């Protein structure tokens, strides 16, 4: 983090803004397809479309700390947007862990990028994990916001072990697909402008 410059922080801010724009597009598309239950697939939907932001950050700001900052931005968003009280924790943990994998390990670049991106996408699970692991507290939080019993029952209806496994699997699969799409975009539009080789990050 000491090597960060003002320009790096500005760049992270720009990438964070693009990230949230892509997330908003994913949320809109999911809502159109899944209605009230779309919230469960926001992490995987975002993973599908936001890979290019991750690639640009790791290539244009190749320093430990950039991914962590993006995770902290997610955490701040969850803290101040009325989500469940502990929703920010996965964003911090997954952001730091992805950063460590990306910049502090000796894994091959393809593996580092794919593993880091996949783990980072779990940073968006903070608002939904309490539905499985802290359900009573989650119900109380919804009730305190004025949600009636029928709404709470309806929104928790699909919460079971099978849907939990489906969400985990969808995040992993969408991270792989999303990074593959992002790599094609990066190689076509960005790599040559930076004098980088055309070797794919993920094939």
Automatic annotation (TrEMBL):
Cited InterPro entries: CHP02185_IM
Keyword vocabulary terms for this entry: Membrane, Transmembrane, Transmembrane helix
Keyword match NAD: no
Entry's transmembrane regions: 12-30, 36-57, 86-102, 114-133, 162-182
A Pfam family reported for this protein in Swiss-Prot or TrEMBL: Trep_Strep
Name of this protein: Trep_Strep domain-containing protein
Organism: Vagococcus xieshaowenii
Taxonomic placement: Bacteria, Bacillati, Bacillota, Bacilli, Lactobacillales
């Amino acid at each position: 983090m000491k090597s960060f410059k003002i320009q790096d922080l500005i760049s992270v801010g720009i990438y964070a803004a693009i990230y949230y724009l892509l997330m908003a597009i994913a949320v809109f598309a999911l809502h159109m397809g899944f209605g009230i239950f779309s919230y469960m697939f926001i992490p995987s939907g975002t993973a599908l479309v936001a890979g290019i932001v991750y690639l640009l950050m790791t290539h244009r700001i190749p320093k430990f700390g950039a991914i962590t900052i993006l995770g902290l931005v997610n955490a701040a968003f969850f803290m101040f947007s009325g989500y469940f009280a502990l929703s920010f924790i996965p964003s911090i943990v997954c952001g730091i862990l992805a950063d460590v994998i990306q910049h502090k390990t000796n894994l091959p670049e393809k593996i580092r990028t794919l593993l880091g991106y996949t783990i980072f996408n779990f940073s968006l699970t903070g608002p939904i994990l309490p539905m499985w692991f802290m359900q009573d507290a989650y119900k109380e939080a919804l009730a305190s916001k004025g949600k009636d019993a029928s709404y709470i029952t309806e929104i928790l209806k699909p919460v079971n072990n099978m849907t939990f496994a489906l969400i985990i699997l969808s995040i992993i699969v969408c991270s792989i697909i999303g990074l593959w799409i992002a790599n094609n975009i990066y190689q076509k539009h960005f790599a040559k402008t930076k004098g980088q080789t055309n070797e794919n990050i993920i094939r």
